[in-house]
Amino acid sequence: MQRTVTAWPARHRLALFFALAFSISWLAWPLTLLNPNSSPLIPFGPALAAAATAFLAGGKAELAALLGQLGRWRVAARWYVFAAGLPGLLVVVAAGLTVSGGAPAPDLGPNPGWFMLLGTFAFSLVVVGVFEELGWRGYALPLLQQNRPALPAALLLGLAWAAWHLPELLSDPTGQRPPLPFLLTVLAQSVLLAWLYNSSGSVPICMVFHAAFNTAGALVFPALLGPDYLTLWWTVALLHVLAALVVIAVAGPLRLVRTLDTDPSHGIT
Q: Alpha-carbon Rg of the chain, whole angstroms?
């Protein structure tokens, strides 16, 4: 009986992971009917889904391999430069282009609040870094890449990742995440994150990228709320798409990897 129980999860890892990631994360969505200010997403859904699927499909060994990815901090410094610098650069350049197009210059005060930014980064590193990236890039991406090239795998994961945010998009009456530019940004980021993951073999590098984007966004987006906000979002989206196209051209759509000796399976059996 035990062999039958574990055989189904082993054959259907991806389906089980996505079903668990969405169902766990969306459990809080109905609560927004009682409290509109509550979060419609449980952020640890993807990580918990990955851990549960790994254990059900491959036992303690696969679970240990998954969790072991969180310790892969020792990678070449250039990947930290890309992960921390690229998302911030894209957001700041988008803000500059929006202002140069006629938007009023944002008032960031005498300084941007470095302690606040560090706190935002640290918080994002855990809440959106560990809780999301362990599932999306650490578990789902290698599985998607087993039977398809890296670019289609990254785009498919990007579509699922965007759909996962649906409760936030539908529960936000202020429209702080315009759906179409948000979708383009997420798809492009999925390509960039696949490139970072495949090239470095590191989930923490993806965590840094995700946290860096959220931190830059926390600084810039609120400062440009108003009639030019949608322009800012479109500029952010188009710059991300441009960056993704450069990565595809340089790294190649087949593997999205800079070094040819990197194994995109990263321990998933």
A: 19
Helices (H), the chain: 2-11, 13-25, 45-68, 77-100, 114-124, 134-135, 141-144, 150-164, 166-171, 179-200, 203-220, 229-251
* Structural domain includes residue 83: yes
Q: To 10 degrees, what angle do helices 179-200 and 150-164 make?
A: 130
| Distance from C-alpha of 169 to C-alpha of 162, rounded to nearest angstrom | 10
φ and ψ of 23, to 5 deg: -65, -40
Total tally of structural domains belonging to the chain: 1
Tell me the residue type at 23. Answer: S
Q: List, for residues 108-164, the tens digit of each pLDDT value.
A: 655 656 778 888 899 999 988 999 999 999 999 999 999 999 999 999 999 999 999
Give a yes or no: residue 32 inside a domain: no
Asked if 234 and 105 touch (Cβ cutoff 8 Å), the reply is no
Two structure tokens written together for 245: 């196209």
Q: In this structure, is residue 65 part of a structural domain?
A: no
Residue 55 domain-assigned?
A: no
> Whole-angstrom Cα distance, residue 106 to residue 218?
13
For residue 256, give the DSSP letter: -
